Amino acid sequence: MQLLDTLDWITISIYFAVLIGIAIWVIRKKQNNTEDYFLAGRNVGWFVVGASIFASNIGSEHVVGLAGAGAGDKLPMLIYEIHAWVVLLLGWVFLPFYARSGVFTMPEFLEKRFDARSRWVLSVFSIVAYVLTKISVTIYAGGVVVAALLGIDFWTGALGTVVLTGLYTVLGGMRAVVYTETLQAIILVIGAAALTFIGLDKVGGWESMTETVGPEYLDMWRPMNDPNFPWLPLLIASSITGVWYWCTDQYIVQRALTAKNIKEGRRGTIFGALLKLLPVFLFLVPGIIALTLKMRGELNWDNPDEAFPVLMSNLLPSGLRGLVAAGLLAALMSSLASVFNSCSTLFTVDIYKKLKPNTPEKKLVRTGQIATVIIVIIGIIWIPIMSNISGVLYEYLQSVQAYIAPPITAVFLLGIFSKRINAKGAFVTLVTGLAVAAFRIVLELVKSSLNPEGFLYYLGSMNFLNFSSWFFLFCVLLIVAVSLLSPAPSEEKIENLTFGTISEEEKRNNKNSYNWVDVVISIVILAIVAGIMLFFDGN
User: Fold this and answer.
1) What number of other Cβ atoms are within 10 A of residue 482's Cβ?
2) DSSP state of 80
3) DSSP 3-state helix, strand, coil percentages of the chain (rounded to 5)?
4) CA-to-CA distance for 148 and 311, rounded, in angstroms?
5) 289 CB-contact burial (10 Å; exposed 0-12 / middle 13-18 / buried 19+)
6) What is the pLDDT of residue 159?
7) Which residue, 75, 97, 210, 293, is the most exposed by fewest CB within 10 angstroms?
8) DSSP state of 44
9) What pLDDT, on the 0 to 100 scale, is given for residue 429?
10) Which domains are delineated in the chain?
């Protein structure tokens, strides 16, 4: 590892100066009500929406973890990075329902479609999921990156970044988050693209790299008997997780809800989907480049998660190294800022406001700020426990998400597509799903002490993709069965909130919210996704 030099530090300083300038500009704007603080006054354009969706998704855990997957023979994990088609699903299918309902949060939407019980369960479920899959993973990856780049110890790096990000998120709210994320997305793309091109040049191009690692290494489709990534469960489980993450999760959907109207929101998701195609080339390929150089004896690292920072520090010239370092810090900060704001929104709007409905707007904003601080502390405490679940960071993230996604995906999908699904079905599925997900995580942590011949060991050691696929089927059957065995929902619970009940006026409004350009770009994105799937087939 080479440490950063003077020119690198100048580049990083310029980045932070611009970031602080944007944050101060936003913080000086008045934010006396919850709509302004949590949804940026619902007045954001498509470019900022799309950049914010991308930057929220691409945290340091993506940069470190996806490069680690490329360097550590886990190429099938690439399927999670070609979810641009699911981002389109958010804009074309889900967003019109959310926008029509006028909600701030996803639990709030569930209350409108079902009842208050589902809202409570999803609120708590989501906050717990953020601690398990987002806050702790992002802080951990950020600590790895900052320690490697700046030559300081892990905890100093992790805590320093958390404090800095927390500061502007707490003070500036959603507006600070989306505008700083736009800057961070641009820097991250430029920096990582430079590393990919310089890296490919260093290894002698794509052909030369393929010769070194072997064409079979670049195969994302493994046979059904593969112990880690059988192709069909991988396809099913990644799609379930994708719909949960991109279409029903507060963390992402909140960005689309900040848009001026459905038209800007949908265009923002189309732009976000376009950007979502980049990580394959920006982060996964550098991981394969790092492995190629290691196999040739030109680079050395102990853990695949170190591949990206080591490659960056050794390959890039002075100044550009600082830009990529700034991009990595940007990725870390944008992800943290997003999850901090989403957590405070969920807690304030779905829990605190529900318990104390007459609270003044200013006090609600203050409550959201306090909630952010508490959730950060819990996330930091979880980091040491997290290391027991899975060796590679990105795989840990996907395995935990694979357990919590099925019940939520089943409830939202069937809730929107079928008017017969009722509140009781949704509530039973969410509660049962939360219990099963928690049970699986516990079994995974203690499986070494279980009887290898027993059912509990089988359940705890089952491939996470197989588990997620069967678990989703169970959740779908459960919500359908419970709904059919209890009374149908009332008219007010389904009007304009399910496909079969949209009024003619709403259909016209929706049709006027897009044009042929939106349709064509969406089709092109789908074609690129299919092309990537065919390209990485090992042949």
Assistant:
1) 19
2) G
3) 80, 0, 20
4) 11
5) buried
6) 72
7) 210
8) B
9) 96
10) 6-398 (1.20.1730.10)
